[in-house]
Amino acid sequence: MVSMKDAIVKIDQAGRLVLPAKVRRRFKTDKFELRAGEGKVELIPVEPVESLFRSVPELDLERIRREHREEVEDER
Predict the structure, then answer these.
(1) Cβ atoms 6, 25 nearer than 8 A
(2) For the purposes of burial, counting CB atoms within 10 Å of the CB of 72, is it exposed (0-12), middle (13-18) or buried (19 or more)?
(3) Alpha-carbon torsion 58, 60, 61, 67, what sign?
(4) What is d(CA 71, CA 42) in angstroms, rounded to the nearest whole number?
(5) Does residue 16 fall inside a structural domain?
(6) What is the pLDDT of residue 52?
(7) What's the chain's average pLDDT?
């Protein structure tokens, strides 16, 4: 595994840390899996669900989400 030290980040009193913009842009996601292991913490980028459908360009995710919300409302 290649390790790069991009920045040193600080955790605030609420337990938050800020990833520098250059790191966020590199991974093109706002979700990360957190893994805590022996003496280290890792953040693993999680690809947006939309990236799974790149090979199906005609897929209308907004329509699918809207229909799902409507179905959930109908079931109530």
Answers:
(1) no
(2) exposed
(3) negative
(4) 38
(5) no
(6) 64
(7) 82
Q: Is residue 65 part of a domain?
A: yes
Which 8-state DSSP code applies to residue 33? E
pTM to 2 decimal places: 0.52
In a domain, 67, yes or no: yes
What is 34-56 written as a DSSP string?
A: EEEETTEEEEEE---GGGGGTT-
- Residues with Cβ within 8 Å of 16's Cβ and at least 6 positions away in sequence, in order, are none
Amino acid identity for residue 72 in this structure:
V
Task: Identify whether 11 is part of a domain.
Answer: no
Q: Is 9 helix (H, G, I), strand (E, B) or coil?
A: coil
Q: How many domains does the chain fold into?
A: 1
Q: What is the pLDDT of residues 7-44, one digit of tens each?
A: 888 999 999 998 888 888 888 888 899 999 999 999 99
CB 6 within 8 A of CB 23: yes
